[in-house]
Design brief:
The complex is a heterodimer. In chain A, 0% of the residues lie in helices and 54% in strands. Chain A contains no helices and 11 strands. In chain A, the strands form 2 sheets. In chain A, strands 2, 4, 5, 9, 10 and 11 form a 6-stranded mixed β-sheet that branches. Chain A has a 5-stranded antiparallel β-sheet with strand order 1-3-8-7-6, with no helix packed on it. Chain B is built from no helices and 11 strands. Classes of the chains: A mainly beta, B mainly beta.
Chain lengths: 112, 116
């Protein structure tokens, strides 16, 4: 079983739509959680960290459910520029210093 | 804004040849990662350094891959001999490390390797 599982999509939504991505992780000892955005043939870039209390950054809301080992990302009022792959990332402290595990990514296409 | 530098951006090599990638992390970042990303998949860790020490190379194919970070700053990843299946994007990332806080990683632009 992979450490981080994501629905690869693709998700195709019209501009203005609300879309949600989900991610599950296998290690209950995981400590830090992130969403990264990756444009086609580019490097991943941090979109936002995910905190236990949930956090919001403009149109983006991230939620963490430790009991269910589940992370979500909600995008409201989708823009064409939101088209990208969204990577769920989990940081396991454990015996390895800050190892980051990546999901395979969820592809989003926003159409006009 | 500080960036992770990687070179070359693109590399085409014939199978059985040797190839090397270079990475210069953000100044002061003790943790350096090398990831490999195949199209359509998420990045997979090859090797992780803390300063000059390897802390995780469990997924590094050691028969052909090697990595070093001699002075705890920049790093080199080498493949010898290259195989067709090594064609991928090789990403370097760096982060600070604090056991009290999870650290985000900052990525370089990557090296896209094509083995022919």
């Amino acid at each position: 079983r992979k450490e981080v599982e994501q629905d690869p999509g693709p998700f195709n939504v019209p501009e203005g739509a609300t879309v949600a991505f989900n991610c599950t992780y296998s290690n209950s000892a995981s400590q830090s959680f992130f969403w990264y955005r990756q444009d086609c043939r580019k490097e991943p870039k941090l979109l936002m960290s995910v905190y236990s209390s949930g956090n919001e950054d403009g149109r983006f809301t991230a939620q963490l459910n430790r009991a269910s080992q589940y992370i979500s990302l909600l995008i409201r009022d989708s823009k064409l520029s939101d088209s990208a792959t969204y990577l769920c990332v989990v940081n396991d402290r454990g015996s390895t210093l800050g190892r980051l595990y990546f999901g395979r990514g969820t592809q989003l296409t926003v159409w006009p | 804004e500080a960036e992770v530098a990687q070179s070359p951006r693109y590399k085409i090599t014939e199978k059985s040849q040797a190839v090397a990638f270079w990475c210069d992390p953000i100044s002061g970042h003790a943790t350096l990662y090398w990831y490999r990303q195949i199209l359509g998949q998420g990045p997979e860790l090859l090797v992780q350094f803390q300063d000059e020490s390897v802390v995780d190379d469990s997924q590094l194919p050691k028969d052909r891959f090697s990595a070093e970070r001699l002075k705890g700053v920049d790093s080199t990843l080498k493949i010898q001999p290259a195989e067709l299946g090594d064609s991928a994007m090789y990403l370097c990332a760096s982060s600070t490390w604090d056991r009290g806080l999870g650290s985000e990683a900052f990525f370089g632009q990557g090296t896209r390797l094509t083995v022919v």
